[in-house]
Write a sequence for this structure.
């Protein structure tokens, strides 16, 4: 009975253990071969896959395309893209240096003044001794200069223009941009003097004579070469007479008459001191007299 049970149990088995192992082995082998085949295909694709990245364009071609867009097509924005591409593809080349200054110039031509300033400053930082460093500094000053507002508004841009253009003359006095910088400086100084005059006249109208004198004093001491200095001296005469400080009023009128004898402002100043029963007379110890002697105008 035991024997029959054993035979029944044996007969109920689907396959001997060795057969099962063989099937498992062949199955694993097949899966491994398939995986290996797929891996081989993947590896083959890795080595044979085509690179879709476009090759770098020659630096000189990109640069000249930028020049063409800027000069012939009058399209500074597109020109900037070409110049910036030179810097991206050929960052350490001489073409990249040239393209950087041209980027600044293209921004300037397009009226993108902040971008121009940033590009020009980057050029000076990277190439402080470069052939175009003077021009980069001039572009910075010119960008600020072109945004000078009217005298009724804040003059921060005018101050920046003056500082940047002064830098051109200080660092590059023999450059071809020095004379142009000087001309722009005179305009900027005249603008700042005009702002001081506007505020001084406001105080004068409000009968704040001390406040007015302080503003006119700035014009006389800092902006003597501007067209506003004649009026500033007359307004000083007016303010001092209103305060009863006659000697200073006489000095302001006398200095005005000495330096600008044909000025219509001198006629006004002369008439003002005459109303007080005095004549224009210079006090050599006055700050007004000293200011003009320091400037070489006295």
């Amino acid at each position: 009975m035991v024997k029959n049970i054993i035979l029944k149990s044996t007969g109920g088995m689907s396959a001997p253990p060795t057969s099962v192992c063989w099937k498992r082995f062949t199955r694993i082998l097949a899966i491994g071969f398939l995986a290996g085949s797929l891996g081989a295909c993947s590896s083959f694709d890795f080595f044979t896959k085509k690179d879709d990245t476009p090759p770098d364009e020659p630096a000189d071609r990109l640069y000249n395309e930028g020049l063409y867009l800027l000069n012939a097509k009058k399209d500074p924005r597109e020109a900037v893209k070409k110049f910036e591409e030179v810097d991206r593809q050929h960052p350490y080349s001489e073409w990249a240096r040239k393209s950087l200054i041209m980027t600044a110039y293209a921004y300037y031509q397009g009226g993108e003044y902040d971008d121009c300033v940033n590009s020009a400053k980057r050029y000076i930082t990277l190439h402080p001794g470069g052939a175009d460093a003077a021009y980069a500094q001039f572009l910075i000053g010119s960008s600020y200069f072109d945004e000078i507002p009217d005298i009724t508004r804040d003059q921060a841009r005018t101050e920046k223009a003056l500082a940047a253009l002064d830098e051109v003359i200080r660092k590059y006095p023999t450059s071809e941009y020095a004379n142009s910088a000087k001309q722009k400086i005179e305009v900027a100084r005249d603008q700042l003097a005009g702002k001081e005059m506007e505020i001084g006249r406001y105080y004068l109208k409000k009968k704040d004579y001390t406040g007015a004198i302080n503003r006119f004093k700035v014009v006389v001491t800092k902006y003597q070469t501007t067209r506003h200095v004649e009026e500033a001296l007359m307004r000083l005469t007016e303010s001092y007479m209103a305060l009863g400080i006659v000697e200073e009023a006489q000095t302001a009128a006398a200095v005005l008459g000495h330096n600008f004898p044909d000025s219509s402002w001198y006629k006004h100043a002369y008439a003002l001191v005459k109303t007080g029963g005095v004549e224009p007379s210079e006090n050599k110890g006055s700050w007004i007299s000293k200011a003009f002697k320091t400037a070489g105008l006295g």
In short: Residues 191-295 form a domain with the Serine Threonine Protein Phosphatase 5, Tetratricopeptide repeat fold (CATH 1.25.40.10). The two ends are 144 Å apart (CA to CA). Residues 17-48 form the longest helix (32 residues).
